[in-house]
């Protein structure tokens, strides 16, 4: 048996056995969070998620991620878009819901109910939003995850039996004034850049970040570079504009920019100089949208999740047809 | 003259006399709040509205409802959609505006100005939103009512001469903690379920609720069953998740679910097992959206009205084309 | 050389020299804030902007306006819509961004960075929003300006180095109660009406207002009349409903209505009785939306900018195809 035959063997199994098919779709679904249609990338991403969840003392987030991804993969069978389903396009939102619910909601049986409801509804929301957006030929991105999770997190305030332990306290916005003079070192920038990449999956982490980069590189080295560049530029800009250094260090100003960078730079356009400049503009404005949404959601006590990436990417992708010579999707 | 001839006689009159036509459209408009195109249903609904408005010490709401419905029916003549106009599709939002304004705004001459402006604009909003949504083949539902009323209720804070007496005080969200241990009896569930049905028209009430159910049953018994089931499941879920028992008892967690249940279960799909399961999912998520919107609007001091139903139904109706074998509209 | 030949000479120059072309586009862009495609109007508007900025002790706003307009005119070249670009349709949002940033953000080098980012992104937002809205045949209006500026103003709360000096303090809404009995004189109404017109460009001012009216009249006298009528009716209604007299006097309840009046009355419809009544309805509801948005944005501490006009005009323009016999655009 040669190395070449492993993918072939796997493909044969996924066609024959339902469980293998769901595993394959779940792995691809996890990889699709960063736009990759590759089970190896998904496997590396899952390893990274387990590393970061366990090292941040929240192992349930990793197991929730598995449950959410698998449930969404099973629910995805209700669509008629068989190709999209098998490529994991109906699973990646469930993957993120599965991490987010245990991160923000205290572990109780009702937390698991929320996770199940969120994963299943994320599939319906994906079909709904994709259908709406096809009018303008843009993708749903992670909007179904964000909207579904926001509903559950907001609802947690009204329900006594759902306790949002990880949520910020609702407050009126105030101009941010740093308590101490902050000095930024090179290691600060490198660490923040790496945390920004793993923060896409809701946890900071250096080792996890390297696995995420490896997963991206397994499918496309250019993609991995764009992720790093996006995170680095966003970190730099957030420091220059005077954002909260703790948030910068945790990668909270960079994770949306990572996704914008990969989306605009490699997924929906052919790489090139014109696209590179357009992508840099997108990264810069993503940092502004990230800060704006942090403030916008302050009175509600919920996090932005990846919405700044979604809005920024829609903003820069809709006119794309006109600006860019060629399209991929 | 046989019984059969009364509808025929009525039809002849509505074609000949303008006033009869407007009365017919207004009755159908009131019935269309719950998707029924039937003047008998409308008459039973109006009786229910008068019962609940008078028994809740707000008779103006019933008269405002009549004024709003009739004004919207007259204004509806500006559309080219003659069939939709005669079926009451441009009147039901005015019907709800006519109840909501006296419920939330103190009775003054300017309250009536708001009611007139709201009813007329609700027709324009209906044409606007229906035109936008036909891109995805979904109906405007009660979105025109909600948006028009929200504008007037928000504006009441800025205008000294419009006093929003029935509005909740704007506040930052806090996690709900019950003051006393609550025990739920069977009569609590039955009463809450009934209040949920009449709360669609903004008042709790047992007797009114029976008239609403009778009105639905006059056109379709299945429809009436779906309304009851929707209200009951929503009440049960809200109790399980630990919502405020006073709000549950007033039907405030059930009224949106009643509309979602009727819409998904009978109006826009042919009843069946697949549709039944899909409808239950819709009811469950409507309860989450209801709680989420309660929290979302807390800092603004305005009620959700039927927006949770609208959002939930759009979410479950847009992908419908793909999920469901057949469509009605 | 006759007077007639000046436009011809100018046209020849704008075709040959890049700088003349950008100047022409920038002048038209400034005029397009009020829907006029005329460089003379733009020149009069720029004079008015300099008068009002200097008389309100904020000269940077006038210079920022020039920079924003020119930058947007240059960036606009990326679209394929050459005609729209030359008509200033990609410049007017940059013109308003260029005024708004110095009005609300303290003058620092980073303020200029925000102004540059805002102007450039306003062009991308214009292409994006225009593309989305062409589905329903309505224009982007000033939505790109409002959304881009809101992002930067909200972000200012999160960034220490961007200080929003001119922003209202975030607060929960409260019912407005006037401190003293206010008496309205004729001069109050005249002044408020004029301030309402110049407030479209974010400053009150009588002399500036006269220049704006002259600029409108240079292209269309009917247009100038609609601007005055819109401002006057909005002022009257705001007084009647009991709005804050200081805000009315500064034209803050009238500027959105000015734009609604011009848009509905002359730009997107052929003037006539039916259109006149429809426009009056639009003006009345714009005042309600203005008050509603003031309250809506209170917890966030940002101004409405021209969003009430945008929402009101979309509401009244989408159904237009059905209501109005003929269309201009």
Automatic annotation (TrEMBL), chains A, B, C:
It comes from the Bacteria. Its main location: membrane. The chain crosses the membrane at residues 35-54, 60-79, 88-104, 110-133, 140-159, 196-217, 224-243, 249-268, 275-293, 299-318. The keyword Thylakoid does not apply. One of its GO terms (cellular component) is plasma membrane. It is a multi-pass membrane protein. Keywords: Cell membrane, Membrane, Transmembrane, Transmembrane helix. GO terms for molecular function: urea transmembrane transporter activity. It is found in: Cell membrane. The record marks 306 as: Important for channel permeability. Belongs to the urea transporter family. This is Urea transporter.
């Amino acid at each position: 048996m040669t190395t070449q035959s492993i993918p072939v063997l796997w493909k044969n199994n996924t066609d024959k056995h339902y469980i293998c098919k769901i595993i394959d779709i779940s792995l691809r679904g996890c990889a699709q969070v960063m736009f990759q249609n590759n089970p190896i990338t998904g496997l590396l991403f899952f390893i990274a998620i387990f590393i970061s969840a366990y090292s941040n003392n929240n192992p349930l987030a990793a197991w929730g991620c598995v449950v959410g991804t698998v449930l969404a993969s099973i629910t995805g069978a209700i669509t008629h878009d068989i190709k999209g389903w098998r490529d994991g396009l109906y699973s990646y939102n469930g993957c993120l819901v599965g991490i987010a619910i245990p991160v923000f909601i205290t572990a109780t049986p009702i937390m698991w109910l929320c996770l199940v409801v969120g994963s299943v509804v994320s599939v319906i929301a994906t079909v709904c939003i994709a259908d709406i957006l096809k009018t303008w030929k843009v993708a749903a991105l992670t909007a179904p995850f964000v909207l579904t999770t926001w509903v559950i997190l907001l609802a947690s305030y009204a329900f006594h039996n759902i306790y949002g332990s990880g949520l910020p306290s609702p407050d009126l916005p105030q101009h941010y004034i740093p308590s101490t003079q902050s000095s930024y070192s090179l290691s600060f920038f490198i660490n923040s850049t790496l945390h920004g990449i793993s923060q896409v999956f809701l946890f900071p982490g250096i080792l996890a970040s390297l696995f995420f980069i490896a997963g991206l590189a397994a499918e496309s080295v250019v993609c991995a570079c764009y992720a790093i560049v996006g995170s680095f530029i966003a970190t730099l800009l957030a420091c220059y504009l005077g954002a909260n250094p703790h948030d910068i260090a945790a990668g909270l100003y960079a994770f949306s920019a990572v996704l914008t960078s990969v989306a605009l730079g490699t997924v929906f356009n052919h790489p090139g100089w014109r696209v590179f400049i357009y992508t840099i503009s997108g990264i810069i404005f993503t940092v502004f949208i990230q800060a704006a949404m942090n403030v916008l959601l302050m009175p509600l006590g919920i996090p932005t999740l990846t919405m700044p990436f979604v809005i920024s990417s829609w903003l820069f992708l809709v006119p794309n047809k006109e600006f860019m010579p060629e399209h991929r999707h």
